[in-house]
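Re: that chain you flagged

S.,

Sorry for the slow reply, it's been a week of failed gels. I finally had a moment to sit down with the sequence you sent. For the record, here it is as I used it:
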Amino acid sequence: MKKIGILFGQENTFPQAFTDRVNRLCGPGLCAEFVMIDQALQGQPGEYAVIVDRISHDVPFYRAWLKNAALTGTAVINNPFWWSADEKFFNNALALSLDIPVPKTALLPSFELPPDTSGRSFRNLRYPMNWDAIFAFTGFPAYMKPYAGGGWKDVYRVTDKEDFFAKHAQTGQETMMLQEEILFEEYYRCYCIGGQHLHIMPYEPRNPPAERYKADFRPGPALQAAMEHSILTLNRALGYDFNTVELAVRNGIPYAIDFCNPAPDADAASVGEENFEWVVDTLARYAIERAQAQRFGRDNLTWGAFVSKGAKRRRASSPRK
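Prediction finished late last night. Pasting the structure tokens below so you have them in one place:
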């Protein structure tokens, strides 16, 4: 019996609905359940053919356990090795290389020194930074946000130099980005599953949280095609099995604002009945496909085009013996 497990935290509606849907659809020889861990031993053979990871970004123990499971052949959704390496500043740079429009973005050193460092640790950093050049690049107003992590946490809107310096002083040891403000006419939050299944949701981030998925706009054919291109290109390059991309539309052009959400919101009360049904059913069917293709003893992870191309170049340039 092959097993599909889901690893999760405080959420309730999605994990239960996902396991129920898999068990309804999968047929004999396959089942879904909540992951249970009672020991973590190096190299221990995997118990699960597939694990959907919803929580390891907040629990380092889970992330290390998942890497060990992946090594023995579990197909982890999403790849824990890439998820551990990924962050939003790199994502923006990668998007530019793929000709995907993104806001102008600068990386900022933390206001306070990280633990176990001193001023001598930063002798390669010119200080003060060339703030005028940075501000000219992004412009004002701008948004300051953490360079990694998800959710609308620790995000500041800054209106000028003085406002920036006052708010940067509140960020402590967090590494931040300064990002051009995109004054948008429409905004969309888009699920992408398996690098091919898309669900584009009108989203109004200026509304109260309970009202954000109740937006009164819809994309026309040209905008729909442009968004689909951006979503698929980004997710295939990054290699995420399950992700959301947020797109702000300015003058008809969709700008990718945030596309590093490998544990996206999927709560029924938050996303609404129609969106919830889509994400539960699509991820369940995708997990079943991955379980059917999975074989223990081999790599069953998804690797994005960025990593895969680098590995191919390295193999091609290695001296033959």
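What I noticed first: The CA atoms of residues 98 and 233 lie 8 Å apart.

Talk soon,
D.
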